[in-house]
Amino acid sequence: MRTNAAKRTAKPAQKTAKPAPKPAPKAAPKAAPKAAKAGPKAGAKAAPRAAKPESHLGMVRRARKINRELAEVFPYAHPELDFRNPFELLVATVLSAQTTDLRVNQTTPALFAAYPTPEDLAAAVPEEVEELIRPTGFFRAKTKSIMGLSVALRDDFGGEVPGRLEDLVKLPGVGRKTAFVVLGNAFGVPGITVDTHFMRLARRWKWTESDDPVKIEAEVAEIFPKSEWTMLSHRVIFHGRRICHARKPACGACPIAPLCPAYGEGETDPEKAQKLLKYEKGGYPGQRLNPPPDYPGSPAAPAPGVAPGAE
Q1: Which residues are designated catalytic?
Q2: HEC-encoded secondary structure of the chain
Q3: What is the pTM assigned to this prediction?
Q4: Which end of the chain is more exposed for a tag (fewer CB within 10 A), N or C?
C-alpha cells in the first residue's frame, strides 16, 4: 500500500492536448448598397476629369475669337505714342524702351520743337539732346541711337524714313519691334509688335510657348491673317496694359475670361478686379497728350512747364 507521501510525489499523468480549433470561416462580403452602385450621393461633386489637350485647330479658333472679342472691347485701339510724321514716331518708339509711353509723350514736345527733322537732330550737340530726353531714362544710350539714326536718314535716305523692314532694322537702335510699329502706323504695312505685353499675353493664351520675340512673331503670324497683324498688336497691348497685368491680372473684370487658359492667375472677385483696371477702363487718363478723336478716355497731362506737342 502506497503511503500518503508517495501519493504526493507521484507525477500526474500528462493530459492529452486538445486539437486546435478550426478557424471560423470568413464572412462573405456584404453586397454593396444600391446607392453606391448608382454613383455619388445627390449634391456630391464628381471628381473632375482630366482636361482634354487642345488641338492646334482648337487653339487657332480660340485665338481668333479672342481677337474678335478684343476688337469689340477696344475698337479705338491705337499706338499710344504722340507723333505727327514717321520721323517723330520712329524717334518716340526708340525712346519708349524701358519707360512708359506717357513719359515719352511728355518729353518729345520739347525735343521735336528743337529738332523737327533728321537733319536738325543729326547736327545737334549730344549734351543738349541728353538733357531734353533725360526723363526717359538711359538718356546717353538713347541720345546715341536717335542721333545715329538721324545721321543715317540724312546721309542714306535723303532725310526720309524708309518704308521697308530691311532698311529700318539697319538704323541705330531700331529692331524688329520698333520697325513694325513704324511700318504699321506710319506706312500701313502690316506687322506684329512683340513688346512685353504682347509676349506675356501670347504665352498666357497658349498661342506660343516661346520666350523669343522673333519666334513668337512667327508663330502668331501663322494664326492670324496678315491684314489683322497691326490692329491685333494694338488690341493685345491695350488689353495687357489695362486689364491683363503682369503681376495681378484683373481676371474678374476680364471680358475674355471664358477663352483664357490662365483664368484665375489674378483677382477673380469682380469688385476687387474692377479696382485694378487702368487708364480709361479704370476712369483714368490715357498715355497720349493728343489721343485720336474716338478715344473714350481723357488726354494725359503734359509735363510741368511743357506745352503739348502735336495739335
Answers
A1: 177, 195
A2: CCCHHHHHHCCCCCCCCCCCCCCCCCCCCCCCCHHHHHCCCCCCCCCCCCCCCCCHHHHHHHHHHHHHHHHHHCCCCCCCCCCCCHHHHHHHHHHCCCCCHHHHHHHHHHHHHHCCCHHHHHCCCHHHHHHHHHHHCCHHHHHHHHHHHHHHHHHHCCCCCCCCHHHHCCCCCCCHHHHHHHHHHHCCCCCCCCCHHHHHHHHHCCCCCCCCHHHHHHHHHHHCCHHHHHHHHHHHHHHHHHCCCCCCCCHHHCCCHHHCCCCCCCCCCHHHHHCCCCHHHHCCCCCCCCCCCCCCCCCCCCCCCCCCCCC
A3: 0.81
A4: N
